[in-house]
Structures are given as C-alpha cells and as structure tokens.
Amino acid sequence: MEQNNKRFPEGFLWGGATAANQMEGGFHEGNKGLNIADVLPGGKERLKLLMNPGFNFEIDEEKYTYPNHEGIDFYHRYKEDIALFAEMGFKAFRLSIAWTRIFPNGDELEPNEEGLAFYDRVFDELHKHGIEPVVTISHYEMPVNLVKEYRGWRNREVVTFFERYVNAIFNRYKDKVKYWMTFNEINSGLMMPIMGLGFAIEKEEDKYQPTYQAFHHQFVASSIAVKACHEIIPESQIGCMIIFAPVYPFDSNPENVLYAHQEERLFNNFCADVQVRGEYPAFIKRYFKKHGIELEIQEGDLELIKEHTVDYIGFSYYMSRTEKKEKTELEKAQGNMLAGVKNPFLKASDWGWEIDPTGLRTSLNKLYDRYELPLFIVENGLGAYDKVEEDGSINDDYRIKYLSEHIAAMRDAINEDGVEMIGYTSWGCIDLVSASTGEMSKRYGFIYVDKHDDGSGTLARKKKKSFYWYKDVIASNGEK
Predict the structure, then answer these.
(1) Which residues, if any, are the signal sequence (predicted)?
(2) How far is 480 from 472, CA to CA, in rounded Å?
(3) Within a domain: 6
(4) What is the CATH number of the domain that holds 56?
(5) φ and ψ at 398, to 5 degrees?
(6) Is 185 a catalytic residue?
(7) Which residues span the domain enclosing 70?
(8) Of all helices (H) and strands (E), which one includes residue 194?
C-alpha cells in the first residue's frame, strides 16, 4: 500500500527537545555538582566568554547573573510539564541527564543515588503518559571539576570517568530508555570548545592540537558508550548528534564553490564520518598534516572506533550558511556562530538566524545519501520574542509558519526523496534558558514560562497558539 504523501510513517516519533542545564534548575539540590553551564553568566557577555580565550570557570555573582541555576525549575515541576507534553500528544521527549547529578565531581567511584532516583521519577512519569524518552548522555554539562583538575577532554583520563558514567546510567535505566545519543552537537567544539570539549582556548595559535586531541578522546568515549549500550540494552538504539547546516557558495565562482565545499566537509562531516563510518576521513588527515596536528592514539583506539559505530544520526537544524572565500565585514551575516555571508534570498529571525526550510530538505538528503542510516531531527525551532496579550493569549503565528514550512520540507524528503527518519523533536518545546546567550527572552516553546532576563517572573506555564497547532500536527501524523 502506497504511503499517503501528506502523512508521515506510522510510528514516527513526534515530540520536543530540551537540555537539563537549560531547564532543570535545582543546581545545588540532590547533591548535584557544578557543571560548565552553572558557571556561564546570562546575557550577551556569554558569547564573548564562549568564543574568546581565557575563561576561568568561576562564579562571580557580583558581576553576573546565572539564569541556569534556576532554569525553569523542571526539577520540581516535571510532572506538570510532562502532563502538558502529553496533552500535545508527544510520542517522544528528548532530554539530557546532568552528568553532575550522577557523578557530582565526575571522578567519583560510585554514582549519586539522589541523582539516579530523580531521573527514575522523570522516566516513570513519561512512561505513565506513553512518552518515549530520548536521552542525550552529555549535553554541554561537563563537571567543572573535570575542567579544572583534568583540563577537560584534552585529558585521556576523562574517557575512564565517562565510561563509568555511561555504565551507571545504562544499568540503571536499561528498562526505561530505548533511544540514546552520546554527545550533543559534538562538532560545536570546533567553534566553542568551552561547552563541547570542556576547556577554553588559551592562545589562538594553540587551538588546533588540543581541540582535535579532545575530539579523539570523545570519539573513543562515544564508541565505548555504543559498545556498552548494545551489550547492556540489546534492544536499544544509540546515535551521534551533530549540528548540520548546509553550506551554499555565494555564487558560481569556482573558488567560492570549492571553499563552501571544504567548509561543509570540515564542520558537517568530520565528526559524523568518524562516528558513523568508523574511521578518520582522508580530508581530515590532510587537514591534520597542514596544521601540524599529531594525535596521541592508543593501541586499540582505531579498532574500537571502527567496530562500534552509531545506529542513527541525530542532528540539529536551524539555518543554512552561505560562504564566500574573500568577504568583507559588511557582507557577514548576523547569525549564530555558523554565520557566513548574508544570503539575499533568505529572511532572518529576531536573532539574525537565516530561515531556510528548503535547506532542511537539502540537509536530510545530504546526510542520508552520505551515510544511509536513519535520521532523527532532535532540534529545530525558532527563537523569537513572544508577547502576552491583555487577554493572556500568545499568538505566535511566526513560529507556526516557521515550523510548518520545516515540517513540510521534512515530509517531502521522506515521501519524495526516500529519506528514512525516526522522528522529530522541536527544540525548546517549553521556553528555557538560551544556551548561547543565557536569555529567557529568546523563546522557542509551545509553552510560555513566566520568567524574564532580569530573573523576575512566577514561572507559571501558559499555552501559546502554537501549542494547539502542534497538537493537531501530531494527531494527524503530519497531515495537518
């Protein structure tokens, strides 16, 4: 029987996505330790700290605010929030486990029971409502102790601590979690190693060696996690997770076409090639040689990476990127860390991220053609300023338009292009703290949270217009 080309495959996992450090709060409760997000201040200064050398990973409450400390208080309100997700009809909910709830310092020998018990309660509540947990093992929340005492993922010893962590959570939740991902947006370490790799670049000229050595340690750790997951939870699926942004050449000048291609391979393909194909690609070996990078690879590392590759590819898609080999300051786009030059054919969000639903279809085709593995869009959404009207309504038609166009592009990739997909979890399904700027005003959710950049607010939840729209999308399996 032919698939209805307006609907999605049966069993498609519709849902929403979040991260512990951006929503949980309770940063000192349950014997939780400090993680990287806990020491990142809110506001525009955060991006400078993430991108510039020399951050010290200390809290300075006289100088900064720290919105991640309270988040949206999911730690205490998870039952209320999960009930709202269930009302929308979620089939899946992507969340992360805070590493420092399980191992507060990262290097303990035994896990923290209070942290383990918290996620037991969350997973049980999800299953009560028929919602499948999709769990990211490490989502920008490395223990600060591992950063200060061990220098983050540069240190091989961190692989051992990560192995201890994954074994603890796989054994504890083996009957509760089927879908896992290892490192959130692993390739983000190329641009902001603080969040992804657990260290700040000390000098610009020294960035290459420590960055790629840290990546190697993460690839080893990822393969260890894949191996353990398959052994402990045989019915599980474990994937990698990358940022994907197709790179367009600014024009048909062959120099710009080649430059765009090289940029796309380095950012979009390098990490996925290693985790999916199980080996370092030829282009990155040439890149290492060019930049004098010599990895310390222990005996058995390459065999481990080759033998234990991921089951699916999870990825985030927010925008495409347009590149020009020679560009002026005036030509640069005002987007996130991926911004290249302005694309004259695209409009942009309030934060300057260019909106390109066709780019999502392009991305799905590129990924599936290259890897031939099931794909899972685990982040996609529009950060925008939302206004609460006098009658209490929030009419976020701009969000509905953005998501509707991207979901249509996804549907066409499945039905017209033959792409295999597991599901779609819209980012920030409930408003949360922005990872890049620490703002609450940059809202993604179907559910409004009364919390503001200055820390004020009641934390009350309110349904936006998009809440009811997404409920219809899920109920109709994408036909509406």
Answers:
(1) none
(2) 7
(3) no
(4) 3.20.20.80
(5) -60, -35
(6) no
(7) 13-475
(8) helix 193-197
